[in-house]
Amino acid sequence: MSTYNYVVTAHKPTNVTHSCVGNFTGPQELNLIIAKCTRIEIHLLTAHGLQPLLDVPIYGRIATLELFRSHGETQDLLFIATERYKFCVLQWDADAKEVVTRAMGDVSDRIGRPTDNGQIGIIDPDCRLIGLHLYDGLFKVIPFDNKGQLKEAFNIRLEELQVLDIKFLYGCSKPTIVVLYQDNKDARHVKTYEVSLKDKDFVEGPWSQNNLDNGAELLIPVPPPFGGVLIIGEETIVYCSASAFKAIPIRPSITRAYGRVDADGSRYLLGDLSGLLHLLVIVHEKEKVTGLKIELLGETSIASTISYLDNAFVYVGSSYGDSQLIKLNLQPDSKGSYVEVLERYVNLGPIVDFCVVDLERQGQGQVVTCSGAYKDGSLCIVRNGIGINEQASVELQGIKGMWSLRSATDDLYDTFLVVSFINETRILAMNVEDELEESEIEGFCSQVQTLFCHDAVYNQLVQITSSSVRLVSSESRELKNEWFPRPGFSINVATANASQVLLATRGGNLVYLEIENGKLVEINHAELKYDISCLDINPIGENSNRSNLAAVGMWTDISVKIFSLPDLTLKTEDHLGGEIIPRSVLLCAFEGIPYLLCALGDGHLLNYLLDMETGELTDRKKVSLGTQPITLRTFSSKNTTHVFAASDRPTVIYSSNKKLLYSNVNLKEVSHMCPFNSAAFPDSLAIAKEGDLTIGTIDDIQKLHIRSIPLGEHARRICHQETSRTFAICSLKYNQSGTEDSEMHFVRLLDDQTFDVKSSYALDQFEYGCSILSCSFSDDNNAYYCVGTAYVMPEENEPSKGRILVFAVEDRKLQLVAEKETKGAVYSLNAFNGKLLAAINQKIQLYKWMLREDGTRELQSECGHHGHILALYVQTRGDFIVVGDLMKSISLLIYKHEEGAIEERARDYNANWMSAVEILDDDIYLGAENNFNLFTVRKNSEGATDEERGRLEVVGEYHLGEFVNRFRHGSLVMRLPDSDIGQIPTVIFGTVNGVIGVIASLPQEQYLFMEKLQANLRKVIKGVGGLSHEQWRSFYNEKKTADSRNFLDGDLIESFLDLKKNRMEEIAKAMNVSVEEVMKRVEELTRLH
Amino acid sequence: MGSWSVGNWPSFDPHNFSQLRPNDPSSKKTPITYHPTHDRTLPPPDQIISSEAKNILLRQFYQRGDEKLRPKRAAPENLAPEQECKHPRASVALSSEPPK
Lengths: 1089, 100
Known about the structure:
The complex is a heterodimer.
Chain A: E1 5-11, E2 18-22, E3 31-35, E4 39-46, E5 49-57, E6 62-68, E7 77-82, E8 86-93, E9 98-106, E10 120-123, E11 129-133, E12 138-143, E13 154-157, E14 162-168, E15 176-182, E16 188-196, E17 201-209, E18 218-221, E19 229-232, E20 236-240, E21 245-249, E22 255-260, E23 267-272, E24 276-285, E25 288-299, E26 303-310, E27 313-318, E28 323-328, E29 339-345, E30 353-357, E31 366-371, E32 378-384, E33 388-395, E34 401-405, E35 416-420, E36 425-430, E37 436-439, E38 450-456, E39 460-465, E40 469-473, E41 479-483, E42 491-496, E43 500-505, E44 509-516, E45 519-527, E46 532-536, E47 549-554, E48 559-564, E49 569-575, E50 582-590, E51 593-600, E52 604-610, E53 617-624, E54 631-637, E55 640-646, E56 651-656, E57 659-664, E58 672-676, E59 684-689, E60 692-698, E61 704-710, E62 714-721, E63 726-737, E64 740-751, E65 757-762, E66 767-777, E67 780-791, E68 802-810, E69 813-822, E70 826-832, E71 835-840, E72 843-851, E73 857-865, E74 871-877, E75 880-885, E76 890-896, E77 901-907, E78 914-919, E79 924-929, E80 933-938, ...
Parallel strand pairs in A: 1-87
Antiparallel strand pairs in A: 1-84, 2-3, 3-4, 4-5, 6-7, 7-8, 8-9, 10-11, 11-12, 12-13, 14-15, 15-16, 16-17, 18-19, 19-20, 20-21, 22-23, 23-24, 24-25, 26-27, 27-28, 28-29, 30-31, 31-32, 32-61, 33-60, 34-35, 35-36, 36-37, 38-39, 39-40, 40-41, 42-43, 43-44, 44-45, 46-47, 47-48, 48-49, 50-51, 51-52, ...
Helix pairs in contact in A: 2-5
Chain B: E1 32-33, E2 48-49, H1 56-69, H2 81-95
């Protein structure tokens, strides 16, 4: 049963909704603050560019973000208002490095009609009050007292009901607002009001202006000395104040974003819906406005927000494309553009549709999204884990170890690759043609297995076998010295660095040698109680050639020990507990912090903080990486050291913000890895896996990899076809020719590797592609693409005509093989019992795929089901059909084969306006609706009465705070069937803000544990701005608010891993379990995404 | 083709962006996610702001009552009988809750 669900973000929102610039973190520090719907990001402007400081989750959807300077303050405060009528004023405490709440509150009214055009929040430039327009006909005032403290809020009646924008005017003795509104004849005007704080009312303002541009939508208040306001229309821009009125015509455009350039308000950057950036200049003489001027600067992403930063650099935040850092050049380039794009910040939003595919056939899902809109539309391929880009591969069975060696100590590149097998050692080397061929190092013993190899000082190489340690010249390749253990005591395990060798023989003998020029010198030995299972002396101190510490893993007492070198004194030891012996230990440093990693035989990994002086081990943490023994090795990528854990589930361990992170490597099973940096294959890794030796480069070390394919048009539906190895998309292209805008809709076929468009099919005029499906039919095994369309006529409320088009892919071209006219929009298509199930307006319709006498095929209507407002989203399972309705929530239908009929079985009687549905299992269905909530309903087959059986019971409710456009079954990570986490079913969702999330159905025991953890975390991790997590996650729509149930917030739960030790202990104590246990269970969940 | 209005861009700190290297991976580093555990996420008690409970009509009604009660210069001594009888009613309105 999928009743208990865990919701977690795999990819955070990237849609930039707001931005502002000010001195937030210090009086002399300039910050860019960006809102991405439910998060804010604080950046610092530096010589090197934007430096990200903090990512702050907000328990609400941000409606307003403003920086302001209160009286007597030396730095700015941040005002945030959320869509659920909460607000807060935040301050940066530079000493504590914390965000502190100065004020907060609830500004909701019990009665009131929420505004249609969004919420408006503004701050008086002289800091006398905050103004909010949240409900039609009301203007809410939160006054400041003269010490900058906020006072009780009150409402003022606002006569204008259709408000488009409100701003405060600068330089007014009384706080004065200017209101842009539309009257009941659809004409637009502006009007000013003074706010009388004493009378709590408006007083008619100094001026007004009637009959503006019909597309006027944006007000820009102009600071002193000019004052007044700019009114941005679609065809004109007007400057208006008590004393002046200036207007200029503009090329028709819809301006959505502006950024003030100069403090005196003489220049503004304007961004429009086609991505053009203009500079608007107020022409003035002696502080009097004499005119306006507008100049095209160039093209950017379609801007939702523009912030002038400093020294001609500008941040362009976008909802429809990638956000950008641009520079305004003094001279235009060859294309006449002043805009130079310096950085792009990938945005997946809006994700309108996506599909989950396994393109590399590695058993791991990748998400391909339809992202962006208008000209910034793209496909994005989102992949979890780190990929290996194979450069060369040979078949080699039974590899037991690998090491790379240089031919001289100070060579840049590796020459040799030593590959060890059970009873031989082979040496591969790069030849002059940059090919890897078998070679020889004469001084090495090649008839036995090599236990360890290393480059050594004085142009020497070290080889350790069970019988001896050999020191070989890397120039002459001849044996220079050999060290033998006592007779009868063969070497079991060994390790070395450039100047030291540590080895263990049977019976727990630990021997320490030093490498000199042409000589191996036994310095010390120690007899331990038990046999030694693994060793390491990786130098992580100041001297990169030698280590002062040695890590030793033990059989029998199952411990790790730290010895000092050269004296082999035991500094510290830790008993691991349990019965699983350590198989690999590694001393390593991440971001300057020394760690000891210890891998166990059952796929678990322990990590400790290591004190380099005392050898003390603290802060033990345990994670499960796989189920098989792990071998640890370091490697470098982009000048940073990482650790590769080879096992049945290879993992890269790296560190970010001083926290260890684990990222999957997209390979099935790796037995050994060693870095191999040769001239032909720079920065590569040699990897032994499943009978192959592969040399490849490694992706950037990060968790999610995104590749975006710009389309220049808006993709709205996507699906993949395995047999033809193609994607098909429904897309629309906007054409702007002169003043007329037109749209063209297409079905396009793309290669699934190159993403080249192979074939396109243009839909009719007014015809939109609404749904797409790859399927085959009963008694016809060919794969087809089916496309459902709608003719969207300007005069119709709902489409009354559409088509189902069936395409075959022949020679990588779309061939239309059948088409069927429908009586409405085909919102959804599903493969169903070898037939085609379509949702057409209010009807569900089933089509058979019939063979005509002439051998061609056609779709023939079989049966249908009426009774929906609009059947928008359909999922099927067996004979069951789950329908998500425009406004009637979820209903369950069943197809009856004998009668050839579809009947309703049950429905949810709530009035949810659906945005996506999915079937979690036979009985539980998942829905997302347009108030950003998720819910689950359960089929009640055991109900006593028809009435009970006919009702889908709501079992789970949760406020996600994101608009979900699509659910798909699948996983972003490689699933191991034999691990616990591999058994957890997951659904992926994509949202308007560019979030990719995962909903995992947990077993009850695990759910209850995590629920308890969440409850405890709520007490420890506070909501920024005093916002409550419990309230934020409560199901919320116009009709009701209900506590979340049967959903858990994975983002909160996984933040446990970011807590300080004492906080973790506090929580673990409250839960009566060990910190280690909580960490392990939370780490496991992080591996779901 | 220069332009008289493009240029002379304002500068807060001339060093900002002076050493920018485009596509430097460190500029895209994900910042630390902030999880406050301190107690100052709640503001001082007097800065937890709520809205005035009285609705606009009652407030105006009461304000007008106040204004009428204010002694007028013309007739400081003798209040009209109607005004006197309005006095207690206004105080009733003050203490009553707004209609639900």
